[in-house]
Amino acid sequence: MSRWDGIDEFTAVAEQASFSAAARRLSLSTSAVSREIARLEDRLQTRLLHRTTRRVELTDAGRDFLARCRR
């Protein structure tokens, strides 16, 4: 497992505000994107996204992490 695993998926979800839109953009299944982000959150030991049935929003930690990913 690379320390970079899940970063592409996370940035796509953050930019699209949608797991399904991110999955389409990355040509992956929605479940694969969700699984990679869950693994990333486990490795970082923090929640990056607040998920509801209708929305996906970045947490404060998610906003900070996204800014670091974009550097």
Describe this structure in words.
Helix content is 62%, strand content 8%. The mean pLDDT is 94. The protein has a two-stranded antiparallel sheet. The longest helix has 15 residues, at 30-44. It contains four helices and two strands, in the order αααββα. The chain has one domain (7-70): Winged helix-like DNA-binding domain superfamily/Winged helix DNA-binding domain (Arc Repressor Mutant, subunit A, Orthogonal Bundle), CATH 1.10.10.10. Strand 1 and strand 2 form a beta hairpin. It has helices spanning 7-16, 19-26, 30-44, 60-70; strands at 49-51, 56-58. Helix 1 packs across helix 2 (19-26), helix 1 packs across helix 3 and helix 2 crosses helix 3 (30-44). The chain is globular, with a radius of gyration of 11 Å. The protein has 71 residues and is mainly alpha-helical.
SSE topology sketch:
Blueprint: H1 7-16, H2 19-26, H3 30-44, E1 49-51, E2 56-58, H4 60-70
Antiparallel strand pairs: 1-2
Helix pairs in contact: 1-2, 1-3, 2-3
